[in-house]
Amino acid sequence: MINLILLGLPGAGKGTASERIVDKYHIAHISTGDMFREAMANETPVGLEAKSYIDKGNLVPDEVTAKLVEERLQQPDTEKGFILDGFPRTTVQAELLEGITKRLNKPLTNVIAIDVDEDVLIKRLSARYMCKNCGATYNKISNPTKVEGTCDRCGGHEFYQREDDKPEVVKNRLEVNEKMNTPLRDFYEKKGILATVDGEQKPEEVFAAIDKILSKD
Ligand SMILES: [Zn+2]
């Protein structure tokens, strides 16, 4: 059984790693965002409770999110294990999760932090740019135009960057996330289940490092 949380800042490669883990180990990928959308669409009691907060523009309280997680972790597809995505984000949520996993007798087996230096993340996250003429999206690192300075789709030569993708904005977003991420890391380090992998390697190397940790159990 693999009951896992991945920690890491935006751009660290949690999404890619999650996909590979799910492919190999056939565990349930539990995304809080998906869970909310589903529960609200199905109008379950907890879904409706969450919706009443969202409709008013309020944050969903931790207790409501926790109820949703507890329901989800009782679904049969979590038999072999699960990977939690988007929860916990704070140590308060981590405490709530601990209560849930105890009640369900499904303790966390691994918490893996994917570490990437902030400067590298800023480079990765601010590499996105778009064509001024047709709006095609490119990425300087992972998906550049075939001919430098020429849009593949329309042949345009003028490009721009969205406000959200500018380095200063990205840096800000990372700092906000880091403030939440650090206490969580400490929390799980104290519990003795935190492992770290170097996220500056190629995605397949990151996965190999994670795989090594997971297959030890
Ligand atoms: Zn274009």
UniProtKB/TrEMBL annotation:
The keyword Coiled coil does not apply. ATP binds at residues 11-16, 128, 137-138, 201. Its main location: cytoplasm. Consists of three domains, a large central CORE domain and two small peripheral domains, NMPbind and LID, which undergo movements during catalysis. The LID domain closes over the site of phosphoryl transfer upon ATP binding. Assembling and dissambling the active center during each catalytic cycle provides an effective means to prevent ATP hydrolysis. Some bacteria have evolved a zinc-coordinating structure that stabilizes the LID domain. The keyword NAD does not apply. Belongs to the adenylate kinase family. Its EC number is 2.7.4.3. It catalyses: AMP + ATP = 2 ADP. Catalyzes the reversible transfer of the terminal phosphate group between ATP and AMP. Plays an important role in cellular energy homeostasis and in adenine nucleotide metabolism. Zn(2+) binds at residues 131, 134, 151, 154. Residues 128-164 form the Adenylate kinase active site lid domain. Residues 31-60 are annotated as: NMP. It comes from Lactobacillus colini. Pathway: Purine metabolism; AMP biosynthesis via salvage pathway; AMP from ADP: step 1/1. Keywords: ATP-binding, Cytoplasm, Kinase, Metal-binding, Nucleotide biosynthesis, Nucleotide-binding, Transferase, Zinc. Monomer. AMP binds at residues 32, 37, 58-60, 86-89, 93, 162, 173. It is found in: Cytoplasm. This is Adenylate kinase. It holds the Pfam family ADK. InterPro entries: Adenyl_kin_sub, Adenylat/UMP-CMP_kin, Adenylat_kinase_CS, Adenylate_kinase_lid-dom, P-loop_NTPase. GO terms for molecular function: AMP kinase activity.
